[in-house]
Specification:
about 190 residues, mainly alpha, 6 helices
Length: about 190
């Protein structure tokens, strides 16, 4: 497999973006616009420069799936806005099929990771501390109405950020499919 400029640009940009987003999500539990918006714009430039209009079309369909599905989850309160932006920018680079694979794989990794975090918390902190930390209904007195939850409180209840599973899924899917990429020569 010959290394091409397109391969180098793709792997460096995707690798740095997902690593940076994962670290940011672990440390701050947010994925800022100043990270996602430039990567989104660079993804459009990448597709046009290396793949032309067919690449831009594939990136657009990837965006429709990656951003669109997570946007719907965000609208119903099941996901974070940073996660929507993360997948939106990443999906322009990945295109339609790789975005689908990354989303499925990252959902599985997030579910498994969350399960282990909760189980570990039950074993180390006990039932009441785990419920208090991760479950929104833990501090509601019987018969009392549920109070509106602040954004920061909701974020603090998250067992893990979504950027880490997305990064791991992206690296696995890209490396697995690397020999089948269109830029591979020989």
């Amino acid at each position: 497999m010959a290394v091409t400029p397109q391969m180098i640009v793709f792997l460096i940009c995707i690798g740095l973006y997902t690593l940076t987003a994962a670290i940011w999500d672990i440390r701050v539990k947010r994925i800022p616009n100043k990270l996602t918006l430039p990567v989104f714009g660079l993804g459009i430039v990448y597709q046009l420069a290396f793949n032309g209009l067919p690449g831009l079309k594939d990136g657009g369909w990837g965006f429709f799936v990656g951003f669109g599905l997570l946007f719907l989850l965000w609208m119903i309160g099941s996901g974070g806005g940073g996660d929507v932006k993360l997948m939106g920018a990443l999906s322009v680079w990945l295109g339609y099929w790789l975005t689908l694979y990354v989303m499925i794989t990252s959902a599985v990794l997030a579910a498994v990771g969350t399960f282990f975090v909760i189980c570990y918390s039950f074993m180390t902190k006990g039932n009441s501390k785990t419920k208090e930390q991760y479950f929104a209904t833990a501090n509601i007195e019987p018969g009392q109405p549920r109070q509106a939850e602040t954004r920061d409180k909701k974020i603090s209840r998250r067992p893990m950020g979504y950027a880490v599973p997305v990064a791991l899924a992206t690296w696995a899917i890209v490396l697995w499919n690397l020999p089948r990429f269109p830029w591979v020569q020989g």
